[in-house]
Amino acid sequence: EAGVAQSPRYKIIEKRQSVAFWCNPISGHATLYWYQQILGQGPKLLIQFQNNGVVDDSQLPKDRFSAERLKGVDSTLKIQPAKLEDSAVYLCASSLVFTGSGANVLTFGAGSRLTVL
Amino acid sequence: TQLLEQSPQFLSIQEGENLTVYCNSSSVFSSLQWYRQEPGEGPVLLVTVVTGGEVKKLKRLTFQFGDARKDSSLHITAAQPGDTGLYLCAGAGAGSYQLTFGKGTKLSVIP
Q1: Per residue in B11-35, pLDDT tens?
Q2: Residues 6+ positions from A115 with CB-CB distance below 8 Å
């Protein structure tokens, strides 16, 4: 089974520029997550989709971050304009079913490492 | 916000030694997961525990969920260089689906 695909793997931009990350989840996985992992910290949930609807975006800085999941499959995460503190690895994950039990099995992609200069 | 504190933050041991890492919180979790993350990769799920006092074994790794479901430990027997990585615990609160991750324990096993 193919894993969660993310691109690009690495991106270097200057502050105030924009960047977009793409994620293709495991086929058939209804739930898709975007996490931000700053160096030395654990992943922090930015947004969670169930099919093409948003379940939770409470920690997404909506003044600069946006995400969409068209047709309930692929997803893109955009940052505009980027700040220095956005330097992090952006992880996409998917799970088969959102049960609401908190015990979902998440499969993560390798991540997209963003450096903002 | 539910916080998960992991300790130690860093651990460097010789091959063959045993070790235990801890994940603690003041909050009760309905479930707790352990992940291992290698450099340049995403976290990979090792185990999910849901019952207070539950113990699960995965080869040389033993996971325990505290009786009160506020803490967990991971014990590795006879560590090998392949065990090197960042070990993350993640918990879901009662009635919540959102996973909260700890900062992780970075383990280095020296051959």
Answers
A1: 999 999 999 999 999 999 988 999 9
A2: A10, A11, A12, A13, A87
